[in-house]
Amino acid sequence: MNIILLGPPGAGKGTQARMLVEKHGMVQLSTGDMLRAAKDSGSEMGKQVADIMARGDLVTDEIVIGLIAEQLDNGADESGAIYDGFPRTLGQADALGELLSSRGSKLDAVVEMRVDDEAVVRRISGRFTCGGCGEVYHDDTKRPAKPDACDNCGANDFKRRADDNAESVRTRLMAYYKETSPLIGYYHAKGLLKSVDGMGDISDVQAEITSALS
Ligand code: ADP
Ligand code: ADP
Ligand code: ZN
Asked: What are phi and psi of 145, to 5 degrees?
C-alpha cells in the first residue's frame, strides 16, 4: 500500500507515519527528514536549502522530487510507503504519480489530517524529537516516561528544530494554504482522498486513519 499523509505543519503526520511503520512494516518517506539529513551532512544541496528551510519556505520541486526518486530507485517502497510532507505542490504531485506509474505502482489513498491553526501552533511550539531514533514528543501531550531518556531507544539526546519558531510557523502555514492545500481537490478528483479529524488525541487520530484505510 502507498499512502500520502497530507496536512499542515504540526498536524501529526510524522507521529502517525511512525505508528503505521510499526504496525504494517511500511517505510516512512519524509522529505523534511531527508533535507535535514542533507543539511547536517554539510553537502552542497544541504547548504543550498538551509536558509530556505530556516525561513519556512518550500525548497524547489526539483530537489525533493530527486530525493524521492532516489529512494524509489533503491527499492525503499517495496513493502509500501507512507509519504510524509511530500508532495507539497501540484508539480510534486504530478511527478509522484509519474514516478509510481513508471514503476508499475500506484497510490492507494491520500489521508488529509484536518487540524486547526491554533492547534498547529501549539503542537509545533512544544515539539521535540529523539536524536537517537527520531521518536516525536511534545511538552504537554507526549512526554517521555523519564524526562531524560527516550521511551523507544533510551537515548538522552532530545532535539528541538530551529525552524519551530513563531515566524517560520506563520510562513509554513501560508505555504501550506497557498501551495499544498490545492492537493486536497486534486486527490479528491482522483478518488483517493480520505479526510480525518486530526484534532483528537494521538490514539484517536490513529483509529480514524486505520478506519479510513480499511
Ligand atoms: P513539518 O514537520 O513542520 O511539516 P517538514 O519536516 O515536513 O516540516 O519540512 C521542513 C521544511 O523542509 C519545510 O519547511 C520546507 O522548507 C522543507 N520541505 C520539506 N518537504 C518539502 C517538500 N515536499 N517540498 C518543498 N519543501 C519541503
Ligand atoms: P508533522 O509531522 O505533521 O509536522 P508531528 O508528528 O511532528 O507533525 O507532530 C507535531 C507535534 O504535535 C509533536 O510534538 C507531536 O508529539 C504532537 N502531536 C502529534 N499528534 C498529536 C495529537 N493528535 N494531539 C496532540 N499532540 C499531537
Ligand atoms: Zn529514541
From this structure: -60, -45
